[in-house]
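Handout, section B. The chain below has 139 residues.
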Amino acid sequence: MPPCLDVYVWLPECSSEVQGRCIESYVKAADDDERLHTLIRAHTQGGADDVSTLYLKARDHYQASITFTRDGATVLGLSVDAPDDLPQTLRLAEQLMEQLRQQFAAPAGCAGVELPPAGDRSEWHEEAWVLLRTGELTF
């Protein structure tokens, strides 16, 4: 199995409307996944206060993810296969990142090979595994 290039966008607030649009656009068969609904309820109704990531089947990509951060933001992610041609995969990731940023009005995006989702702003700014970065987070 080839490695994956993970593409993420940062959403400053935890909005169930935006999460719903993400699920409708990118997640396959999410309606009967009770884990998803439970996680969203816990984070949008204030019942959770730690980082949570839910990995889901994606419609057109290897995988989709939704991460609820320690500081109340949401990180939306899509993973794409990264076979031998990394430059071509990076171009695809850059296009996907810009598409997600526009679709969800995300101020920033990043991508990297087998990159875990950020759990807070400080993790978002870590550079160790990031290959692409666009936009900025304001404090």
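Note. The helical segments are 16-26, 34-44, 86-104, 121-124. Compare this with the example in section A.
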